[in-house]
């Protein structure tokens, strides 16, 4: 530590260069986002001609118009997204932790093989399964409902979460299970009263990532949802781009994009600490 | 009345037999301690009684019921884990109440029992704390409290004090002794490495080795008349000294010779055997006295001296490359290299035959020749 400070005080120029370089890279990386923010407050006409941020042209017009542009308030799409996210989170929390508990603690025939197969599905590209899945859901008439998007979450299809939780549960001392067994718990009670609550740091992680991945999902929502009133926020954003006429409403698109980002931002603020903690303690003792 | 009875109990992991043919009866209200070297199967045996480990063959009787296949929670047994195994997400009250909650005991009764246990263990100020906010000793008490709350007939302890520091260990040991006094009808089985815990707490000690029972008896009995070399070496600290000797069996009595020289005053019962065989003479460090060169059982130079204040321990190196430990009361001035001549009361000597079994005590000790 002290040697670093020494160098810094001994060579102020060097330090200046370093900080300047880091700032430049940071700016470069965040430029698209900054551009998005500034553009959303500019009149449509100057978005592509005027790259800087000009307070004289500041306007909220994009937000006001964009909110109602698509025939219904943009909030409806946000709520659609939120509903799907909520179900996905609940589904993942329970199904993945139950599956993980089984892999980590129960002895059943071919458990090792099953675990290996589960891990292999981690590497399976989504595009391989999407077609058969679509056909299956179509045959039961579930297309254009939320079912194809949330039902699988209740059957522990997210191998990554299962893997994460298995590692976490393996770190929980087995004495805890056995103490609960002596206290009269059956396997389900051990899971519900002991393992599930002790897994909380890992479950926070699962919930947050479920939310992120579902909220930001575009592809599968595009495939399964076809009527506008079922659209989620990402699909609604896509409506602002009109590829055929070339008359896309860029300003409104940027404004609504920012609104769509807002929940993620708030979530990150709220759970920043738990996120870091969850990642740090995963696999360690509860 | 017999509380627990093990009949020809066996356990193997694959082809490895870790418990081989254990027979043991434990009386109601008895405090039984399992001791033995690491890996001898103490924990396994305890966990088999608890029901956490399956039994391959034999009968486990709890009361009059064969309990081999009874689930752990229905055996009327509570267990205190070495790691305490407190539920980290529950406060002390909930930890204590958990088993009752699972059993759907009504709330007033839960409260009564939790309060009683908390009072017994001085846990009242901590009822609202999580385990991680407790000291090691307090956690230990919560773990014991969980057993008390269940009002189980049998308590099992697996090395409950091994995670505590020396001072706390003594204090908690005394607390466990008090707890036993308060619960005279509760049978307790206690696993430990610690000799002092075993000697002080036990009504009976079971010495295990390699999955077998070497000897069962009251603490003093094991100390005074160990049945074989293993028990003799295991019970007592510092451990008993062993010297290779020749046993001369003469029908009724056995004489002992060392390097061809008879040890005049020492006699054991030969049990009708005749002939000669290699054997072992055992003398506890605390039973040796300094004597004259003519009387000496053992003579040798002092190699190392340890002054503990209360006692002085000297290590002698004998000519035939055997080390002998001697324990003297109080402080004694001994110099390295000084030759000591040691004797012992014949009644304090132990002899073991070739197979390691103890010879019976001499009927009467002959006067010095
Ligand atoms: N699940 C298992 N699979 C295979 N062998 C096992 C298993 N559990 C225990 N053993 C073996 O059984 C033997 C007895 O183990 P146990 O834990 O009962 O010993 P212990 O007397 O309690 O030892 P310690 O004093 O070190 O706690 C050991 O040799 C151990 O290696
Ligand atoms: Mg053990």
Task: Describe this entry's structure for a reader.
The complex is a heterodimer of chains A (286) and B (369). Chain A has 286 residues and is mainly α. Chain A has two domains: 2-59, no CATH class; 68-281, MetI-like (MetI-like fold). Chain A has helices at residues 2-10, 12-40, 61-68, 74-105, 111-122, 126-139, 147-150, 159-170, 174-182, 187-198, 200-215, 219-224, 233-239, 250-281. In chain A, α4 (74-105) crosses α8, α4 runs antiparallel to α11 and α9 (174-182) crosses α10 (187-198). Chain A starts with a helix and ends in a 5-residue tail after the last helix. Mean pLDDT of chain A is 86; it is low at 282-286. Chain B folds into two domains: 2-234, 3-Layer(aba) Sandwich (Rossmann fold), CATH 3.40.50.300; 241-352, OB fold (Dihydrolipoamide Acetyltransferase, E2P) (Beta Barrel). Chain B contains eight helices and 20 strands. Chain B has a six-stranded mixed sheet with strand order 6-7-8-3-9-10, sandwiched between helices. In chain B, a hairpin with a 5-residue loop joins β17 and β18 (323-329). Residues 13, 18, 36, 38-44, 193 of chain B line the site of adenosine-5'-triphosphate. Magnesium ion is lined by residues 42-43 of chain B.
């Amino acid at each position: 530590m002290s040697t670093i400070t020494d160098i810094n005080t001994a060579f102020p120029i060097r330090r200046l260069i370093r900080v300047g370089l880091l700032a430049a890279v940071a700016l470069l990386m965040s430029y698209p986002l900054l551009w998005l923010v500034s553009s959303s407050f500019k009149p449509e006409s100057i978005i592509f001609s005027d790259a800087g941020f000009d307070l004289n042209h500041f306007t909220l017009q994009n937000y006001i118009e964009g909110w109602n542009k698509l025939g219904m308030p943009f909030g409806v799409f946000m709520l659609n997204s939120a509903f799907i996210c909520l179900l996905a989170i609940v589904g993942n929390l329970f199904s993945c932790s139950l599956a993980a508990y089984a892999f980590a603690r129960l002895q059943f025939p071919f458990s090792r093989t099953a675990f290996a197969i589960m891990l292999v599905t981690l590497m399976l590209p989504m595009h391989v399964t999407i077609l058969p899945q679509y056909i299956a859901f179509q045959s039961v008439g579930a297309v254009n409902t939320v079912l194809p998007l949330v039902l699988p979450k209740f059957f522990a299809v997210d191998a990554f979460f299962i893997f994460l939780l298995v590692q976490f549960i393996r770190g929980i001392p087995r004495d805890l299970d056995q103490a609960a067994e002596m206290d009269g718990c059956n396997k389900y009670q051990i899971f519900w009263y002991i393992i599930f609550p002790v897994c909380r740091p890992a479950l926070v992680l699962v919930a947050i990532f479920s939310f992120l991945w579902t909220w930001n999902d575009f592809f599968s929502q595009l495939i399964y949802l076809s009527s506008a009133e079922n659209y989620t926020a990402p699909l609604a954003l896509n409506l602002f781009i009109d590829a055929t006429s070339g008359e896309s409403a860029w300003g409104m698109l940027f404004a609504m994009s920012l609104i769509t980002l807002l929940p993620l931002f708030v979530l990150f603020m709220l759970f920043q600490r738990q996120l870091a903690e969850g990642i740090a303690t995963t696999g360690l003792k509860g | 009345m017999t509380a627990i009875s093990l009949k020809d109990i066996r356990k193997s992991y694959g082809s490895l037999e870790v418990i081989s043919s254990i027979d043991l009866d434990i009386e109601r209200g008895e405090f039984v301690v399992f001791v033995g070297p690491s890996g001898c199967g103490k924990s396994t045996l305890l966990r088999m009684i608890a029901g956490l480990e399956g039994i391959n063959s034999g009968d486990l009787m709890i009361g009059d019921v064969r309990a081999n296949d009874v689930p752990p929670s229905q055996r009327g047994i509570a267990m205190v884990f070495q790691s305490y195994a407190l539920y980290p997400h529950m406060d002390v009250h909930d930890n204590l109440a958990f088993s009752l909650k699972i059993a759907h005991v009504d709330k007033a009764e839960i409260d009564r029992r939790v309060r009683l246990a908390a009072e017994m263990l001085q846990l009242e100020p901590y009822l609202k704390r999580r385990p991680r906010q407790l000291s090691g000793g307090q956690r230990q008490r919560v773990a014991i409290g969980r057993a008390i709350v269940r009002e189980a007939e049998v308590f099992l302890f697996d090395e409950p004090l091994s995670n505590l520091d020396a001072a706390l260990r003594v204090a908690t040991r005394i607390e466990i002794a008090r707890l036993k006094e308060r619960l005279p009808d509760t049978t307790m089985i206690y696993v430990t490495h610690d000799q002092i815990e075993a000697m002080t707490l036990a009504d009976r000690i079971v010495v295990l080795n390699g999955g077998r029972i070497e000897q069962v008896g009251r603490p003093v009995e094991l100390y005074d008349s160990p049945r074989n070399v293993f028990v003799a070496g295991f019970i007592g600290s510092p451990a008993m000294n062993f010297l290779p000797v020749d046993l001369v069996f003469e029908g009724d009595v056995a004489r002992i010779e060392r390097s061809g020289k008879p040890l005049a005053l020492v006699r054991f019962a030969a049990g009708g055997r005749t002939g000669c065989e290699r054997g072992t003479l055992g003398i506890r460090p605390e039973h040796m006295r300094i004597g004259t060169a003519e009387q000496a059982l053992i003579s040798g130079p002092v190699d190392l001296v340890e002054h503990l204040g209360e006692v002085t321990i000297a290590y002698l190196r004998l000519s035939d490359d055997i080390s002998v430990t001697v324990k003297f009361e109080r402080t004694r001035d001994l110099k390295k290299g000084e030759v000591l001549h040691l004797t012992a009361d014949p009644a304090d000597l132990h002899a073991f035959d070739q197979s390691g079994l103890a010879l019976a005590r001499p009927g009467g000790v002959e006067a010095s020749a």
